[in-house]
Amino acid sequence: MGYVDGVNNLPGNNPRMPKAPSSVSKRYHHGDVRNACVKAALGLAKNAGLENVTLRNVADWVGVSRTAPYRHFACKRDLLAASAALGFRQLEQEIRTASEAAGSDCIQRIHAGCSAYAGFGADNPSLYRLMFGSDFNDDEYPELSDAGTAAFAYLVERLRSAQEAGQVKKGDAQEQGVAIWAAIHGVVNLYIDSKPSKVLDTSALQDNVRRVLTTMFSGLAT
User: Fold this and answer.
1) Backbone φ, ψ for residue 149 (5° rounding)
2) Stronger pLDDT, 172 or 19, i.e. the higher one
3) Number of neighbours of residue 5 by Cβ within 10 angstroms
4) DSSP track, 45-74
5) Model confidence over 162-171: pLDDT tens digits?
6) Nearest Cα residue to 114 out of 199, 209, 34
7) Which of 51, 118, 161, 212 is surrounded by the fewest CB atoms within 10 Å?
8) Cβ density class 28-61: b for 16+ within 10 Å, e for less
9) Model confidence pLDDT, tens digit, residues 102-135
10) How far apart are CA 37 and CA 21, in angstroms?
């Protein structure tokens, strides 16, 4: 379920790092460089960690001059913010796809979406930490703020549908969404950080997601 779109190799001159495939090491048209750099950054984050996401490494991987990324990103921080925004858009898409494939039952759709959310975080831990653990602010990077808000808004939509179907008690769907999101986010963090817990078996990610949601919906039931 991981995001990285075919980006499974690493750039750079380190002989221990495989070079980008020939299909990727090519010159991009001007309009494609920005997107190519963001995808390369996600590939580096997934395979080598955020510390290896640099504008120089990204340029090498994409196959453009080392000055080319600077036409689109003033610094590494700008590149990371764009990567986090793309991560949120991909997360939203995975949640929507899983939810809509789960059938018409509102609660099952929320379960499926949360399961997809957890799987995304588990498969992309570096990107997940970047998306939620960075100090980007709304005014600085509105694109990132909008992408994160859209992903959350889909959960709120599903909760409103569940209220209309009589499966969840009437109330502020946004507050309910915050509670569910916070709970699943906590489960994912426990999993990717491998923190031992006598309460939670941190290796059983999806089982924990189901248990947490079952408990929460018991409280939200009409």
Assistant:
1) -65, -40
2) 172
3) 11
4) HHHH-GGG--HHHHHHHHTS-TTGGGGT-S
5) 999 999 999 9
6) 209
7) 51
8) beeeebbebbbbbbbbbbbbbebebbbbebbbbb
9) 999 999 999 999 999 999 999 999 999 999 988 8
10) 15
